[in-house]
UniProtKB/TrEMBL annotation:
The protein's name in its UniProt record: UDP-glucuronate 4-epimerase
Family matches, as SUPFAM superfamilies: NAD(P)-binding Rossmann-fold domains (SSF51735)
Domain NAD-dependent epimerase/dehydratase: from-to ranges: 4-243
Segments crossing the lipid bilayer: none
Pfam families named among the record's database cross-references: Epimerase (PF01370)
Organism encoding this protein: Brevibacillus centrosporus
UniProt similarity note: Belongs to the NAD(P)-dependent epimerase/dehydratase family.
């Protein structure tokens, strides 16, 4: 791979992926429309971390601008991370925006890739939200898709659009279902960022639900590695779970966070939001066997690194 397009390059995962590609000598075209779903200043900081690398060209615009000649010419791999994230905000009138950014923009991108003289490989970021609340032990990629939020519905629909282009045209598209990614630069609306911020200020930590909900948390560098492995190894139409080192309850995560800060978290509980899954747990066997993916950063170390990054930002 010599040239890549990263959509959503100023976002949480996208900025880390862009840096990794540049460090490996890849020329990167980056696109980000700076959606205001959270503080744009955070995205600008992410972009500043990438810096003015000579092999990086940045376009501040939405995919809907469809400047494909500028973006796709000579590109070997497209990493499609641009999306409107978040379960809680996807209800009501906002659903139109989720359809626009998660489904329609993806279809436009796939159509444009198809029109290239040599269509690039496309690695699309999906979500464990397509499964809804998981049952049984670990969930593999053939488990039923039962999203419990409008956001999850748009991610499932996005996957279906991708499969249509694979089956009809043989477009080389693979999809990665992330299980709650965390780490430095995590979005400020996400739980770990919010928990650390409240703990650092000595405030009560607000938990939505009873804290017994469990998650499979994925460190951001592991998610980045999965993207690069998928571009190299995946076959068209393949879907992979991208998870962390274990499933853990939210209350147990807070105990680890408190230990890192030498504080005992003071907790307050609110009713859980509609569409919030009670349990996620990734079976990553397929990613291990097909891609060679294995999470390398344990939760305790990942939380330490996220805390260090947040402290550094607070000083800056």
């Amino acid at each position: 791979m010599t040239k890549a397009l990263v959509t959503g390059c100023a976002g949480f995962i996208g900025s880390h992926l862009t840096q990794r590609l540049l460090s490996e000598g890849v020329t990167v075209i980056g696109i980000d429309g700076f959606l205001d779903n959270y503080d744009v200043a955070a995205k600008l900081r992410n972009l500043a971390q990438i810096g003015s690398h000579p092999a990086f060209t940045f376009h501040s615009t939405m995919l809907q601008a469809q400047r494909w000649k500028d973006w796709l010419e000579g590109v070997d791999v497209v990493y499609h991370l641009a999306a409107l994230p978040g379960v809680r905000n996807s209800w009501g009138k906002a659903f139109t925006d989720y359809v626009n950014h998660n489904i329609l923009a993806t279809q436009m991108l796939l159509e444009a890739c198809l029109q290239q003289p040599k269509p690039p490989t496309v690695v699309v970021s999906s979500s464990s939200s397509v499964y809804g609340t998981m049952q049984g032990s670990f969930t593999d990629e053939i488990a039923p898709l039962r999203p419990v939020s409008p956001y999850g519905v748009t991610k499932e629909s996005m996957e279906q659009i991708c499969q249509v282009y694979v089956k009809a045209y043989g477009l080389r598209v693979t999809m990665l279902r992330y299980f709650t990614v965390y780490g430095p630069r995590q979005r400020p609306d996400m739980a770990f960022h919010r928990f650390f911020r409240q703990l650092m200020k000595g405030e009560q930590v607000t938990i939505f639900g009873d804290g017994q909900q469990s998650r499979d948390f994925t460190y951001v560098a592991d998610a980045v590695r999965a993207n690069i492995l998928a571009a190299k190894c995946a076959a068209p139409g393949e879907i992979f779970n991208v998870g962390g080192d274990r499933e853990i309850k939210l209350l147990d995560v807070l105990a680890i966070m408190g230990g890192l800060l030498n504080v005992t978290p003071k907790l307050t509980f609110q009713s859980g939001p509609a569409g919030d899954s009670k349990r996620t747990c990734a079976d990553i066997t397929l990613a291990q066997t097909r891609l060679g993916y294995k999470p390398q950063v344990p939760l305790e170390e990942g939380l330490r690194l996220q805390l260090a990054d947040m402290r550094s930002q607070a000083k800056g």
